[in-house]
Amino acid sequence: MIFSNIEGRLREIRTFTRPTADGRGTITFRVFVIEMPFSRDTPIDAGKLLAVETIRKEYYLLLEVTDYFPQHYGMVNLDGSVPPELREEIMKRVEEKWESKESWIEVYASSVGYVMRVNGGVEFKRGYIPPLPGSKVKLFTDETFEKFVFYENGVKIGKVVNENIDLKLNIEKAIKYHIGVFAYTGSGKSNLTSMLIRKSLEKMKDLKVIVIDVSMEYGILLLDQLLTYESRLVTLDRLPDNQIDAGRRLLRTHVIPEELNEDRDLIRKAFETLYNQGKLRKLYIPPQGISFLTYGMLIDMVRSQTEDKYVATAQKPFFMMLLHELDRLMRENKLSKDDVVDEAVLHSLDEVEMKAREAGIKENATIFSFISAIKQYIELKPIESEEYDVENLAIELLDQDPASPRLFIVETPNMDDARLVISLLIDQVFMRRKRSYSSIPVVLFVLDEAQEFIPFESRQKDYSEYSSIAVEKLLRHGRKYHLHALISTQRLAYLNTNVLQQIHTYFVSTLPRPYDRQLISETFGISDSLVDRTLNFDIGQWLLISFKAALKEDIPIMFYADNNISELKENLLKILK
Ligand SMILES: Nc1ncnc2c1ncn2[C@@H]1O[C@H](COP(=O)(O)OP(=O)(O)OP(=O)(O)O)[C@@H](O)[C@H]1O
């Protein structure tokens, strides 16, 4: 059965226009007002899908309920102008007569951008066909809802609100087109993020995940996963000397969720095991910070030589030649100006050096000393040490060996460190990936507090300029190289919103500021009233909006997320029994 027995009628179509969140334009939404028979246990609720007949035969327009409330004829015109005694009398009557023919349920719904053709079979298509006011509105059955919206083999991550259906996600596609988790503090962002990570690792065998953890949460939220998979818990602190020290210290430095307050012994034991498994690493960050020569920097250096009035005119064509050589090299190897210069450039340098020699340029000319200086810089081998640095991290992250680590949690409570690590790491990973041309492993970068990495206004002083460039590169170009991001934030307003278009799957919970909610409705072209529903969401309740990624069809879905902590606890007990 496509539809349930309950039917309503479309009474009205209203339009609302408001300025866009950035104040530069306006946006218009349609609200569809539907009447349904009154019943105390009517299954109507926010998030339900409806279909209404349209101007075209066999075609229905699909709507999603955003709000509903009971109406009684007696109350429609009851305002302060009616004398109090009469008002009281009318309201008493209404109270007694809700279950009469004079009452109905008024339902507000918005279009989800789909039409459905019922002609023997059922066919869904993107689009909008004007519905016929006064015509029948039908409610989907759970079965139709499920078939229409979810991939059959999707990964279960929760339960759809008000429906008896599992929320199933196409996790591979969701990751491919990046994920955003947006909610006010305490709504369950880290819980949802950890749950998505554990489900993804389970489903995608060629996936590796790296979490940049600034709030010291994930070491516990994913502790069972760290124990199960080959993994790394990376800190900037000195490593503990022994198992006992490790257990105590890690328990002290991590945020323990309230639900696990009674389980401290279990967590300590798990940390001790992690230490014994040799999964802890101390990350070394070079004190000079960003110190690599990039192609952009090299090109600037060469160009300044061509413009330098002290460089002899006869040498300038060779600097120009070097610029052309660099351009060719970068094109052939798909390098960007942010890529770090390495041995690949030696051939270009040799080529220009040889041509300059053949042309009879003097041995002590600037061109030769310039080329020689660059060569020396490249051949300078990094100091060999036992330290685990960003390069080691990148190498392990891209290691294709199935026995190599799959989960990395990098704990950087200092935001400046976190920004520096992420920018160096993304650069390293891009450079290595471009050279290897490999599509595995797929890598997911998880960034909590994303507004700190890609802020609305970035500054050099706190490395946010570097982290912004790196994370933007990941979001814009990562997909080609199988490098993806999951970012979460509590304030969209503080985020560089240019990147929002790159993210195709959004998980939204309570966002108290209208600006943040409006930005979401505008990005996806869904109605304000639907996003506003999130204001009443409970902890762990989410609105999932996805554009050609997580779901079979792009219908905004309200759901209760599975609780990461329940799975964590169950697994820890199993692993450590
Ligand atoms: N799906 C869920 N089911 C049950 N409880 C949940 C769920 N999601 C979150 N919670 C509980 O709500 C509390 C807050 O969750 P969480 O720490 O994930 O929120 P947050 O948005 O990351 O907060 P913050 O921004 O402060 O880090 C936790 O105690 C958590 O266990």
UniProtKB/TrEMBL annotation:
Catalytic activity: ATP + H2O = ADP + phosphate + H(+); Couples ATP hydrolysis with the unwinding of duplex DNA by translocating in the 3'-5' direction
Gene3D superfamilies xrefs: P-loop containing nucleotide triphosphate hydrolases
Annotated InterPro entries: HerA-like, HerA_central, P-loop_NTPase
Highest taxon of source: Archaea
Gene Ontology molecular functions: 3'-5' DNA helicase activity; 5'-3' DNA helicase activity
Every Helicase HerA central domain range: 155-399
Record family assignment: Belongs to the HerA family.
Name recorded for this polypeptide: DUF87 domain-containing protein
Gene source species: Stygiolobus azoricus
